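Reply to dn_fold:

You asked what the input looked like. This is it:
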Amino acid sequence: MKIFNSNQLHEWDRFTIENEPIKSIDLMERAAQQIARAIMDEWSTRTPVVVFAGPGNNGGDALATARILSEKGYKVIAYLFNIGNKLSDDCKVNRDRLSDKVTFVEVTKEFDPPQLEADTLVVDGLFGTGLSKPLSGGFASLVKYINQSPATIVSIDLPSGLMCEDNTHNIHVNIVKADLTLTLQQKKLCFFLADSQQYVGRLKVLDIGLSADFMKQSSTDFETLEANDVKRLLMPRDDFAHKGSMGSALIIAGSQGMAGAAILTTRACLRSGAGKVTVHTPRQNYAVMQMSVPEALVQLDNDPEAFSESVDSDDYDALGIGPGLRQAESTAIALIGQLRRTKAPVVVDADALNILASHRAWMQQLPKEIILTPHPKEMERLDGNHTSSSDYELLCQARELSDRLKAYIILKGHYSALCLPDGKVYFNTTGNSGMATAGSGDVLTGIITGLLARGYQQADACRIGMYLHGLAGDMAVSDIGKESLIASDIIQYLPQAFKSLSY
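and this is what came back:
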């Protein structure tokens, strides 16, 4: 699914109006019918409804919704804020369509706010995707009044005050905190960013029948990753395959007291289809590795406690490096030496990322098409900006770094974002908060490394890997629950995740 920006969303409306064809007021009515139906599905006619409508088309949606709800037996009070005496054409029409069943107040100067009780449903239709600057003045005061009330809040399309993409410089106390957001046709970019979630609440996407042709023919830098996308990427497994033809992976991971990181990464790599997996780890980890992952070959570092020197990687089809390495200077030197000499595709995670962040001059020496998998704090350190103002800004930093290094960057989160060197971004749609547990990132590194060894190109290995990682986590949660999920559970459910995509 493509994710359109605010300008494209308005073009989508226009394209639908011109090519369906349909009048704009009828398209608004179609949207209002869907909004009203979603409200009626959750609240009975005993619920008093207060509608706040702005002067634009979002306000028109709200007024049409007020009329439909009143016709269905709801007690509705609608406030239209027409401070500048400048309503959109469709907002005017829906104002004039209101029947006597709706208690209607048009606010042009003074506003006497209604009492909002705990049993009241507030429908927020002040501003939608057209907003381009933070709310101020009377509208800011109204938002604060709504947020401070005990009422339940439903926002139409976007919580008022929240901008469609970039909220870096927004005034956060002037944004409606919705309990439910009924967004039209598709999710907006801001919905994929963690710092917007406090305003969105539960999210429902309402299909209002916008043109499918526009979706097909319009390009965008942002897309979501869905099951069908991943299914198309999966390669068949040759019936006459043998371990030598299924790829050989090298994992460099672990240090004294951090053998678990090496175990998780190696197990995940094996479960992801690689024919052979070798783990290079300090001598002290020998026994536990042999016992925990008997399917893997163990290659020992000369240092008993940490990765200390680069190794020959010519015979390997992929390298995963970083989990549990620690950040000693000898390990840092070994890391950059390894990255310089490795010709196969590389996945860099965890301590390897932090080493690079501490030696930022080395980043220009990284091989092209390297895969980096930072979480937000690691991304800030890689960029040299230790306090990003917003998740949108952090995403922009990841995209810029991807372009500069010609690297594939997976910015991990609830909706992990894969940034490609050409500027494209794919948001993953699988995964859950139960996966916020130690070792989960090590598992992702192992999965992607295994897919690379198997023969997938970097972009496909990243897309399949992060989708499978989240899908296995979702399957695990359905049986185990979020609180008890641990990283090894994700590996345990990887076979089921693969099977669900293969049949």
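The mean pLDDT is 97.
Hope that clears it up.
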